[in-house]
Description:
The chain has about 190 residues and is mostly helical. The protein is about 75% helix and about 0% strand.
Amino acid sequence: MSTTENLDYSFKRDLLSALPSLRAFAMSLIGDASSADDLVQDTILKAWAKQESFEPGTNMKAWLFTILRNAFYSQMRKSGREVEDRDGILTERLAVHPEQYGSLDLQDFRKALEKLPDDQREAIILVGASGFSYEEAASICECAIGTIKSRVSRARSSLLVALSIDDEGAYGPDANSMATTNRAFAKS
């Protein structure tokens, strides 16, 4: 065996023999077996990638413990800056528009809705706000599907003009007015 092969074998052997101690140390830091195993794995990967910086004849265990400890503290610092928000609930609350804008937008929307002819207002409320399909709305109003589609289309156009909206998605900054108006403007 050459000197290089002998050093590689020695490094692997010492690395493997330190695993139980590394895991015990990781468990003492974290307290969770799965997280401790992940930390040990990260430590081994880092040690393997940096094995040329290990000086043969020095204390391998101390070197590995230092890597593990540093990895642990790096994770802790990182987790202190991160917040798990898979559903986006926390993010949604970070920036909130003042409620008065949404209330004013909703008042404007109601005024514009009241100015629509009865048949158009009825059609857009049934299809847009109440969520009925065109077929269901036509059945409720006792008219043809095409008539309902036409009424809804004219109502949407009238509302967009009355509210001076260039982009259908731009109306209402808050969740309440957006939910109400987006349904009314949604194309079914």
